[in-house]
Amino acid sequence: ELDNLSDAPFSGDEENGGSEDRKTEINGNWIPATSITEAKINARAKRRLRKNSSRDSGRGDSVSDNGETLKTGVVAPTSPKGKVLDRRSRSGKGRGLPKKGGAGGKGVWGTPGQVYDVEEVDIKDPNYDDDQENCVYETVVLPLDERAFEKTLTPIIQEYFEHGDTNEVSEMLKDLNLGEMKYSVPVLAVSLALEGKASHREMTSKLLSDLCGTVVSKTDLEKSFDRLLKELPELVLDSPKAPQV
């Protein structure tokens, strides 16, 4: 009988081939059974390769010479053009670190800790302005309102009752923008002293003497004591001896 040349699985005799080569007559020619088996294997491999290539053709993939699938537009690394586009070192050296320590390239800030020189103004620049060279920048401190004034100066005066340094109080008041609230400094100091000890009242007298002419003027002192006399009925509620003191 002639063996079936289709893609059917191998028969038992083909899998357990004996020591003697079996021959089959095809079209009048005697062909060994082993040659037929190899032909079947090769035909099956080619058919599987064609099936895979036709399935991947819809995705734009292609098959290289060695049977590996490549995407369209991607050059094989083995080709000369692929070597040109490869960013890896051709010499095989290097640790894979960024070039120039991360300071090279477009849109980068530079290496950490790098200090840039002061940029010189170009006179020929169309945006150059002569007034730029004469600008003086100062820190603007907003004047204190009534609520912020009491909240800021109360701890300063209370600390003064502990350390007794009038110069420190004077320096701290100079850093503040008191504005029209200067006359309120003696008012707040005397009000806090009335609630304290006799030593606090003595320290307040020394403080007002040292602040006069530096932080507050004589006019501010006069205005502050006029206000204290008008607010005396309210001070009596907290300090009953306020009129005598």
From TrEMBL:
Can you name one GO molecular function term for this protein?
RNA binding
Chain segments carrying region Disordered? 1-111
Question: In the UniProt record, does the keyword RNA-binding occur?
Answer: yes
Name its cellular compartments: Cytoplasm; Nucleus
The Gly residues compositionally biased stretches are: 99-110
Superkingdom classification of source: Eukaryota
Assigned GO CC terms: cytosol; nucleus
Q: Which GO terms describe its biological process?
A: negative regulation of DNA-templated transcription
Q: Which UniProt keywords apply?
A: Cytoplasm, Nucleus, Repeat, RNA-binding
* MI domain boundaries: 148-245
**Family matches, as SUPFAM superfamilies:** ARM repeat
Q: Where is the composition biased (Basic residues)?
A: 43-52
SMART domains for the chain: MA3 (SM00544)
Q: Which family does it belong to?
A: Belongs to the PDCD4 family.
Q: What is this protein called?
A: Programmed cell death protein 4
Please state the gene responsible for encoding this protein: Pdcd4_1
